[in-house]
Amino acid sequence: MFACLFTHPLDLAKVRLQTAPKPGDNLIKVAVRLVKNEGVLAAYSGLSASLLRQATYSTARFGVYEELKERMSKDGVQPSGVKLLGASMFAGAVGGLIGNPSDIVNIRMQNDKTLPKEQQRNYKHAIDGLIKITKDEGVSALLKGLGPNLVRGVLMTASQVVSYDLFKSFLVKNFEFDPTTKTTHFTSSLFAGLVATTVCSPADVLKTRIMSSSGSNQSALGILMNAVKTEGVGFMFRGWTPAFIRLGPHTILTFIALEQLRKYRIGM
Question: Which regions form coiled coils (predicted)?
Fold first, then answer.
């Protein structure tokens, strides 16, 4: 949640690039248009929903993964890469399910001002958004885009936490990095952020487009096929730059904080 305070504007830019009807925009254009039309504070539109998402999605996936990894570890020996992969995929699915409602509100609040006035939802905050979605669209609407969100959750957690552990182990074994220093944690998490951004981009774009819409019954496959037809395969990597600029620092801050929590827990 702490990392979210710094990276939210980049997440907002990513969402707007992913939901843009036509390609051609970039991070600079989106930022300039945002400040010009909506003001500087608009960069934090949907912050309450973003914090709620981190409190549900991220807490669940990291918590489940760490618990499973600890249970699989024997005599202080790290589990195999295959076991870590399985644990991370399960943890990602759990996080995706728990965080889906807040994810919908987050995306809609970030993208709201780009819609015509008559289509804007004007959620006051995350809880208001959840209440209005339930009231206007039904409880089932809180699971909109769950399929690609589960895929993204699995891919994100698997690529992020497993690659972090593997990169960290590689640096320690081959380059004699100290596993307890922030330099090791920083380097490992930076590479993990790069891997996660690239692997998750297609599912992330698809998830964003489904969740940003209201009342549409078009399937994920239908949206995917239509986007490929009209925009080309490159649409799957829309918003990659702000996604990496966001996820890189976010991953670094998250894992450094997680390592400190591990030290505190061991110290207890």
Answer: none
Distance of CA 13 to the CA centre of its chain: 13
Taking alpha carbons only, the member of 154, 149, 143 closest to residue 92 is 154
Distance (Å, whole) CA 97 – CA 158: 16
3-class secondary structure, 24? coil
- Tell me how far CA of residue 94 lies from CA of 50, 70, 130, 185, in angstroms: 18, 18, 20, 25
Neighbours of 194 (CB within 10 A): 16
Each residue of 25-59: pLDDT tens digit? 899 999 999 999 999 999 999 999 999 999 999 89
Q: Which of 194, 185, 197, 190 is nearest to 239 (CA)?
A: 197
pTM for this entry: 0.80
What value does the mean pLDDT take over residues 232-261? 88
Residue pair 168/179 in contact by the 8 Å Cβ criterion: yes
Distance CA 148, CA 137 (A): 20
Number of folded domains in the chain? 1
Q: For the ranges 15-19, 182-186, 255-259, which has the lowest average pLDDT?
A: 255-259
Tell me how far CA of residue 135 lies from CA of 48, 100, 146, in angstroms.
20, 17, 19
Task: Find tokens 């914090």 and name the residue.
Answer: 51
Domain CATH code at residue 165: 1.50.40.10
CA distance 160 to 119: 36
Domain span including residue 191: 2-267
pLDDT band at 215 (very low <50, low <70, confident <90, very high): low
